[in-house]
């Protein structure tokens, strides 16, 4: 397997972006080839298994796949089971979810900028409709009493497109909301609820004075970001093996262009820091696609035994139940706390959390833009 193509901190030229994309494609092809050879030489048996995939409204879809299949194969199997057209598969993704104590599941939908494309198809419309209702039920979308009345009326009429179009006008439509966490902006130790969407991170901050403040950080103003895992220091050394699960802290830090000539690091301490980073990368990828004049397309990939066959009986995505009345006291949905062992490990110290990491740990932002006089 060749060395993984190195990352760069600063913005790449279009030619460099194409070159890195080509390098990544060659790397993935090499890895796939090595895995195939390994499976053949080690004679690892390939078996057919059944997976349960949950939609955003909790509906379960069962698909039969091979143990040698990859994520794209599973996604295509789900799309085939739902009769989602091939050209729309690229608008959806699979997520690891954590089952809640009451039996419900949480899941995330992305790429809301292309809703109109998805709504032109019957299955795509049902999936997007189920996602929108789910987000409203979770309290992720801000709805007042009058808007709730209008939404419920459209739902009772079965007007799914009109329901979605109205929801698109509401605050935080298309955002992913994370569990309450801690930030050092505008002051250290502030409690914050972070939302990701509309090419920004939205902060709802509770200051030490108990005053609530809201603000947003645009993705195009983030020069770079990184995720680190911190463990307590004992006798001058960090010993992750002796640390309990609750001792390890995940941090997302991004360098933000606050004004024309001032960059500042903002840090979020959250067990969902990796998911936040994935959301940032997804928004950057979408911006780069738009800048290049491209569009979202699914990866053209066939299974070893050929393309998927549509089922004879069409499976329709079920409509969710009618919306309940808004409940301000409702607890937030418990989301998956994504913890991966591949993040950087360091000991907690009094140094600036954003200054003691090498350049290789940063995610450079290809969509980074300067601030103009109009923005100021």
- For this structure, the quaternary state is single chain
Q: What number is the mean pLDDT?
A: 76
Give the helix/strand class.
Answer: alpha+beta
- Measured between the Cα atoms of the first and last residue, the distance is 48 Å
Unreliable spans: 101-107, 298-320, 324-360
Helical content class: 25-40%
Strand content: 15-25%
Record field, number of beta strands? 14
H and E string? HEEHHHHHEEEEEEEEEEHEE
Number of H- or I-type helical stretches: 7
Give the overall shape, derived from the CA principal axes: globular
Any idea what the radius of gyration is? 22 Å
Question: What is the makeup of the main sheet?
Answer: 10 strands, mixed
Your description of this structure?
- This protein is of the alpha+beta class and 376 residues long.
- 27% of the residues lie in helices and 21% in strands.
- The chain is built from 7 helices and 14 strands.
- The protein has helices at residues 14-41, 71-82, 115-119, 122-138, 145-157, 160-168, 273-291; strands at 48-54, 60-66, 176-177, 181-183, 190-197, 200-206, 212-218, 222-231, 233-234, 237-238, 249-259, 262-269, 344-347, 363-364.
- Strands 3, 4, 5, 6, 7, 8, 11, 12, 13 and 14 form a 10-stranded mixed beta sheet that branches.
- Strand 9 (233-234) and strand 10 form a beta hairpin.
- The longest helix is centred in the first third of the chain and has 28 residues, at 14-41.
- The relative contact order is 0.15.
- The model is unreliable at 101-107, 298-320 and 324-360 (pLDDT under 50).
């Amino acid at each position: 397997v060749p060395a993984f193509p190195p990352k760069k901190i600063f913005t790449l030229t279009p030619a460099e972006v194409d070159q890195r994309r080509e390098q990544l494609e060659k790397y993935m092809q090499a890895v796939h080839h090595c895995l195939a050879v390994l499976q053949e030489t080690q004679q690892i048996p390939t078996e057919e298994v059944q997976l349960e995939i949950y939609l955003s409204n909790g509906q379960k879809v069962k698909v039969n796949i091979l143990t040698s299949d990859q994520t794209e194969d599973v996604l295509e199997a789900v799309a085939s089971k739902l009769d989602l057209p091939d050209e729309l598969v690229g608008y959806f993704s699979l997520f690891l979810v954590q089952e809640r104590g009451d039996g419900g599941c949480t899941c995330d939908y992305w790429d809301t900028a292309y809703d109109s494309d998805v709504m032109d198809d019957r299955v795509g419309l049902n999936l997007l409709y189920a996602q929108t209702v789910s987000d409203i039920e979770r309290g992720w979308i801000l709805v007042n009493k009058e808007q709730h009345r209008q939404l419920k009326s459209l739902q009772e009429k079965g007007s799914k497109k009109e329901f979605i179009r109205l929801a698109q006008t509401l605050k935080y439509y298309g955002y992913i909301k994370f569990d309450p966490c801690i930030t050092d902006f505008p002051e250290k130790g502030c409690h914050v609820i972070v939302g990701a969407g509309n090419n920004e991170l939205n902060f709802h901050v509770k200051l030490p004075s108990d005053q609530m403040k809201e603000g947003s950080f645009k993705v195009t103003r983030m020069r770079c970001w990184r995720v680190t895992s911190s463990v307590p220091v004992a006798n001058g050394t960090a010993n992750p093996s002796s640390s309990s699960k609750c001792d390890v802290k995940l941090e997302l830090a991004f360098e933000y262009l606050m004004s024309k000539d001032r960059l500042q690091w903002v840090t979020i301490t959250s067990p969902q820091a990796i998911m936040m980073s994935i959301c940032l990368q997804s928004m950057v990828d979408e911006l780069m696609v738009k800048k290049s004049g491209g569009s979202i397309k699914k990866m053209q990939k066939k299974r070893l035994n050929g393309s998927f066959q549509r089922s004879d009986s069409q499976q329709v995505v079920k409509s969710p139940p009618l919306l309940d009345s808004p409940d301000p006291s409702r607890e937030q949905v418990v989301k998956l706390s994504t913890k991966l062992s591949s993040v950087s490990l360091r000991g907690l110290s009094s140094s600036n959390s954003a200054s003691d990491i090498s350049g290789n740990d940063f995610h450079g932002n290809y969509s980074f833009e300067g601030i103009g006089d109009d923005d100021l």
